[in-house]
C-alpha cells in the first residue's frame, strides 16, 4: 500500500471503531473493548509506518476535490511532513494507552461504551487535524474535538462540577472559534485557497494583504483551544472528567491542536511582527501565571492542569520567536510525560482515596503501595522540571535557545522584543515549574501519618501503560540529534548559557520548595484531613467521584486548603489565596460577561412574557369577545332573523337617501 493510502487509514480506523462501538454497545457489549483498543492500536502502528516511510524528507501531498464550491475550492487533502507524521505517532500512542487504561479504570461503568466511542472519535478528529492539507477539513476535526470534549468532560454528569465544567469548556473554546472561523475565511479570501500549501505559497510571494488582522483572529481560536491566557480558565475545571480523558486532552489532543495549527501556518503569523509580539506576551503571561497557580492548588489533577497550561505557554513562546521545530519538539516531549503524570495520578487517587494533596501529605506508605506509579511519576516530574537527561530538558532548552537567538538578533524572523519576553518568562517559569513539581512529589509520596486505606492492587492495564509512556519520557530527548530531518533539518541542541541558567534556576526552585516543606511539616499537625475511605474493591472511577465530592465539601471550589503543611502557602505568602483561585479570572469574567448576559436574558424573558405575550393574549381575547357577541345573535328564531333583516334593509335605505341628497347638494 502507498504511504498516502496508509495515511488515510490512520484517522479512518478510530472513526470506524467509534461508529461500531456506538452501534454494538448495547447489543454486543463483549465487542466494546476490542473495538475501543484495536482500531486505535492499528492506527498508531500505521502512523509509525507512515512516519518511517516519510522519513523527515520532502512533504507528501495528495488531494482530491471534495465538492465544487466556486472560486475557493475545498479539497480532501493530505500534507505529510516531518511534524505531521511525528505528532500523529504521538497521538496514536497516547490514545492507545488511554484506551487500554480505561478498560480497567471504567470497568464497571455502564456508560463505558459511549465513553470509549467518544475517545475513538476524539482521536480520529485530532488525527484528521494533524494530517489535513486543507483548512476546511482541518476545521471539521477542530470542531469535532470540541464536541467530544463536551461529552467526555461531562462524563460524570451526576456531579454538578462535571456538568458545569463541560459547559464551560464548550463555551470558552467556542468563544475563540468564532474569530478563528472569520480568520480562516479572511485568509482564504487573501490567498484564494484553503489548501495549506497554497496558503504558504501565497504568503511566500507576498500575497497576504492583512497579515496582522488575520493572525490575531486565528490566535483567538488558538488561545481557546490550547488554553492560553486569557481563554485558559476552562482547562483546570475540565479535571472534573475521568482521569484518562484528562490525559488524552492534555497530552495529545485538543490543547495540542492549537499549537500544531500555528506551527503548520507559522509563515502566516511571522508575516506580522505585531502578531508575534502579542503571541509572546500571551505565552509569557500564561507560563508565569499558571506556574503560580499550580503552586497553590490542592487537587493533584488541577496542579497538573495548570502545568499543562504553562508548558503550552513554552510551545507558544517558541512559535512567537518563529521556531516551529522547538515548539513541536516540546509538544511531543510534553505529550509523553504529561500522559504519564495524569495516568499515574489516577493510580494515586485510587490508592489514596482522595484528590487532595493535603490529605496525601498525612498518609504514610503510599509510594510502597503503588511502586509503578511512584517511579514513573517521579521520572515524569523530573522531565517536567527539565532536569537532564530527560526529554523535558532537551525540549525546553530548544525553546529557550530559540528565544535567546531572537533576543540577541541572531535571527531576523522574529522581533527582539518577542525573544526577550520569552527568554525571561521562560526562565521565571522554570523556577516555578520545578517548585510545583517538587511540591507535588513531596506531598503525594512523602506523607507522614497512618497508612492510607488499602483499596486493592492496581490493575495491570493501568500500570503497564505507565512504563510504556515512560520510555519516550526518558529517551526521546537523547534521540533528537538522530531525527533532525523530521524537524526541517534544524538541530535542537541546548546551548551552554541556557542549559546552565534553566537547570540552575530549576534546582534552586526545587531545593527552596524542599526546604519550605521541611519547615512546614515540622510545624503541622498530623491529623488526617479530607480523606475518602472507599471500599477496598471500589473501582478507580468510583473512588475519583467520591474524592471529588468530598474535596468540594471540605474545601469548596477554589482549592484554597487551609493546610499549614503546604510549602506552597509559605512560598507564596499573601499571594497564595489569589493564586489558588486562578487570580480571580473566573470571578472577573462572571462580572464582565456572565452577569450582563444573564441580565439581558432576564430582560428578554420579561419583554417576551409581559409585552409580546400581552399582545398575543389580547388578540386572542378580542377574537373570543367578538365570537361571544356574534354567538348571542344566533338565537335560531326565524322571526328574529326576518326582523333584523328588515331593520337592516331600512337602515341601508335611509343611509342611501341621505348620501344621495348630500351628493346632490354638493
TrEMBL record:
EC number assigned by the record: 1.6.5.-
Topology with respect to the bilayer: Multi-pass membrane protein
UniProt GO cellular component terms: endomembrane system; membrane
Localization, UniProt: Endomembrane system; Membrane
Keywords, comma-separated and alphabetical: Membrane, Oxidoreductase, Transmembrane, Transmembrane helix
GO molecular function, one term: NADH dehydrogenase (ubiquinone) activity
A GO biological-process term: electron transport coupled proton transport
Membrane-spanning intervals of the chain: 6-24, 36-56, 76-100, 112-131, 137-157, 169-188, 208-224, 245-263, 269-296, 303-322, 328-352, 373-394, 414-438, 459-484, 496-517, 641-662
Location (main, coarse): membrane
Pfam family, one: Proton_antipo_N
Residue ranges annotated for the NADH:quinone oxidoreductase/Mrp antiporter transmembrane domain, each copy included: 132-403
NADH-Ubiquinone oxidoreductase (complex I) chain 5 N-terminal domain span: 68-115
Enzyme class (EC, first level): oxidoreductase
Protein name: NADH-quinone oxidoreductase subunit L
